[in-house]
Amino acid sequence: MIIKDVMTRNPICVEVDTSIVKAKEILKKNNFSKLPVIDKQKKLVGIITKNDISKVSPSDATTLDKYEISALLDKLTCGKCMTKDVITISEDQVIEEAARIMVDSNIGCVPVVKDDLVIGIVTESDLFEMFTNMFCARMKGVRANFQMADKPGSLAGLFSKIAELGGNIVSVVTRESESAGNRRVTIKVLDIELEPVKKILEDCGATIIDIRVA
Questions:
Q1: CA dihedral in degrees (139, 142, 148, 154; nearest 10)?
Q2: What pTM did the predictor assign?
Q3: Which residue from 158, 138, 162 is spatially nearest to 148, judged by alpha carbons?
Q4: Is residue 62 pLDDT above 60, yes or no?
Q5: What sign has the CA pseudo-torsion 90, 93, 94, 96?
Q6: Pairing mode, if any, of strands 8-9 and 34-38?
Q7: How, if at all, do strands 142-149 and 207-213 pair?
């Protein structure tokens, strides 16, 4: 799966001369935490976050009245308060690259750019949706998490036995195991009961960590 398949297209952006007050209103109205900032040529130049706005907003202990505060914030623009060093990604990169960037950089979104123009954005919500679909979380079936030898043919044999009993494997996710020489696997299987799946796993030498109907 690549970025263009999961990104939010034509995201809401603000310009460099947009006031902090206006940016704050947009964030609140749309329940966003960040907004791409563009220049007059519509090219990405930064990103404004709730944290950026909080840093320049008067504290609760200020002696300014609400009119003075409003006047002060109206003079502050996104261009003056934004984070300028923005990590971006292209639409033809794989989705796991966006996830890696967000985890490694501790950020909640990645703008998608083409020729310096913002064409989309990948957010935590987009990744959660992908995660939900990847595990077929909206389908009810037998969900099994297990560990087995990391060698050619081990999963193929297991899947073949499930198919022989009419089971339909709709999701397979694997990752490295804490145990050397093994792999952690999570599968979702439809059209088969829990006990037959459990027996197949045991017969194939898998160590069951969790198995349930979900």
A1: -80
A2: 0.78
A3: 158
A4: no
A5: negative
A6: unpaired
A7: antiparallel
| Lowest-confidence segment of 41-50, 74-83, 112-121, 194-203 by average pLDDT | 74-83
d(C-alpha 124, C-alpha 6), whole Å: 11
Contact status, residue 31 vs residue 8, Cβ threshold 8 Å: no
Q: Is the pLDDT of residue 54 over 90?
A: no
| Amino acid at residue number 23 | A
Which pair of structure tokens corresponds to residue 186? 């999570």
Tokens read off for 114: 């083409």
Average pLDDT, integer, range 75-88: 92
Q: How far apart are CA 5 and CA 55, in angstroms?
A: 35
3-state secondary structure the chain: CEHHHHCEECCCCEECCCEHHHHHHHHHHHCCCEEEEECCCCEEEEEEEHHHHHHHCCCCCCCCCHHHHHHHHHHCEHHHHCECCCCCECCCCEHHHHHHHHHHHCCCEEEEEECCEEEEEEEHHHHHHHHHHHCCCCCCCEEEEEEEECCCCHHHHHHHHHHHCCCEEEEEEEEECCCCCEEEEEEEEECCCHHHHHHHHHHCCCEEEEEEEC
